[in-house]
Amino acid sequence: MDRDGEDARVARTRADVARAALEVLRSGGFDDLTHAHLADVAGYSKTTLYAHWPSRLDLVRLALDALGGWPHHPPSGDLRADLIGELTVFRRSVLDLRLDRVVFGLAQSATSAAAARLRDRVNLEGQRPLRMLLAQRFSGARLEAALSMLTGVVTCPSLLFGALPDDAVIAAAVDIVLSGGR
Amino acid sequence: MDRDGEDARVARTRADVARAALEVLRSGGFDDLTHAHLADVAGYSKTTLYAHWPSRLDLVRLALDALGGWPHHPPSGDLRADLIGELTVFRRSVLDLRLDRVVFGLAQSATSAAAARLRDRVNLEGQRPLRMLLAQRFSGARLEAALSMLTGVVTCPSLLFGALPDDAVIAAAVDIVLSGGR
């Protein structure tokens, strides 16, 4: 096989395994994301998986590649509308992409310093647009509080009750934060 | 062995296994809470465990018995102080009792309707004092929003970054919510 054919084959393997890794992380969590189980699901040999992605953290990274980052709301310049939009997109990602399970899986995987850094980087990046919006009104401890609170409007019902907030609850949260931030 | 001796032996077994179940739930999460692993950790036979607690959900219930409920702040009548007190006790429970891992374990275990009901009951009960305090100021969607937001001040940093908020962030969150609730 020539070099281009080899590259294409590696890229296809990588894409297949990454999709399967994301599927396993969503359905079974980090504990299910082993080389043996992933080899079964993706239809490749364990040897191939170990050769390209030696550690379980590599498998988590693959799953995150397949996810391609958290979706976000395109900002309009209206702070209230943009906060509601960002939380609505976040809620939709929990439903459509099972982002909640990815986040739980990352939390569960973070037993080494390298895995904790990966979790921190992914979550920091995911929260960034919300942080930028809130920084228009808040700073310091108040910014950290507002950021955790608005993230919590979506993550807490999901974590505690397997449920998601309706539109009225999201709007009420944004209004409480914005009127408390005056 | 007479009846009293038998009862005492069963109670001791139950207490031993419950403590071990909580320890396993905290250290390894729900996936580690199997009859085989718990039998090893608790020092009883698998047969004994299956005889008394046939399902994995029974093992989760045992762990929760050993936890004995979430600790709470005794209310003083000052709403701001009581909200800060309740969140501070919650933060301490995450540190001392690894309540975060119990909550993650419950979320992970909720793959059956019975397990989801158990999760909902435990979390509803845990949030109750915070809900009662916030109900002095909020109702409807605003109450749900405020409850998720203040729970999120502790759970979001823990879930996303393995970190906990400092006193200034907890106080800022309570102040934003109370001033937004006017």
**CATH superfamily annotation of the largest domain in chain A:** Tetracycline Repressor, domain 2
- Kindly report the oligomeric state of this protein: homodimer
CATH class of the largest domain in chain A: Mainly Alpha
| CATH-scheme architecture of the largest domain in chain A | Orthogonal Bundle
Structure in words:
Two copies of one chain form a homodimer. Chain A folds into two domains: 3-66, Homeodomain-like (Arc Repressor Mutant, subunit A, Orthogonal Bundle), CATH 1.10.10.60; 69-180, Tetracycline Repressor, domain 2. Chain A is an all-alpha fold and 182 residues long. The first copy, chain A, has helices at 3-28, 35-42, 46-52, 56-67, 79-96, 99-109, 113-134, 140-161, 167-180. Chain A contains nine helices and no strands. The termini of chain A are far apart.
